[in-house]
Structure of Putative acetyltransferase:
Amino acid sequence: MMIRRAAIQDLEQIMQIYARAVQYMHASGNPNQWVEGYPSRALIEEDIARGVSYVVDRDGVIEAVFSYIEGEDPTYRQIGQGMWRTNGSYGTVHRLASAGRLRGVAGICFSWCAEQAKMHGCSSLRADTHQDNRIMQHLLQKNGFVYCGVIHLANGAPRLAFERAAVAPEGVNPGMPQQKQKGDGRGYGIASLILGIVSVLLFCTCINWVTGILAIIFGIIQITKNKEHGLAIGGIITAAISMVLSVVLYLAMWFGMTNAGITYEDLLYDQYDDSYDSDGSDAWYDGDGNGSYDGGGNDGWYDDGGNDGWYDGGGNDGWYDGDGSGGYDYYNDPYDYFRDYYDVQEPGGNQFM
């Protein structure tokens, strides 16, 4: 396989390739780029006569055709919404089309043109395409071209302009921000970051922390460094595994509680609980044994047993009791601390009143 100048005897094959390219553009959502018979037979004959038409020849069969022209292109003199990356001489690729049989043939053509531009002292390689030609835009970016702005053809039609440096960076225009060429996967990075955060928030085991944090790190690297998006895809997979694990574990807990007859109410201050369980000797709001807010003996808060601390009915209590040296009780006692119903009736009772 080789790239050579097109000859007049190649014209029929070349026109068949261009006809196929027009059909493919229409089928892929780009019906407005090559219209009204463009590129015409006369134009291709002119390219051949000028020696700027080239073909990819594989054993006598033409796999692709393009025009490569060095020197100033009149339509590139003015560029809007941006600027060219270089100010030096350049080569231009026009009318690239493939027969559709050889994968990667566009990359072969671009590499050959860049090499020619470099050999002939050009600073860069330029090309343009229609805004609806998503396929060519992708191919250009994949092969090292950077979007620079919008140019207009001789008939006034707008085209997206791209440029690829052909020589060392000294030819680069310092006023043009350099766009990163690796990765093109910020969306993957954002997805990895978000899924990682969700995974951490759904924490169920230590594995979630590890996988979630890894996904966050991968996402940040992808967004800030614009690395190949395989790294971010790894983060997405890692976070997804973590989230699935969380869901499985939560479901297992739910089924386990259901089978054991434990309800949600059993988890918070149930009738008999000690610390979120369902037996006696409870700590809070229970109905039996050594707790508080319960009705058993020796309790701490609001119970009915003796020797209690607060709001109970036993003797020797501290507050709101019904007997002994407490306060707010129902009996007059000289040792009460706060006024009660009977303390005002006898001397030496309540300290307040």
User: Anything to note?
Assistant: The first helix runs from residue 11 to 27. Helices lie at 11-27, 41-50, 105-119, 134-142, 186-201, 206-225, 230-259. The chain has seven helices and seven strands. The CA atoms of residues 315 and 323 lie 5 Å apart.
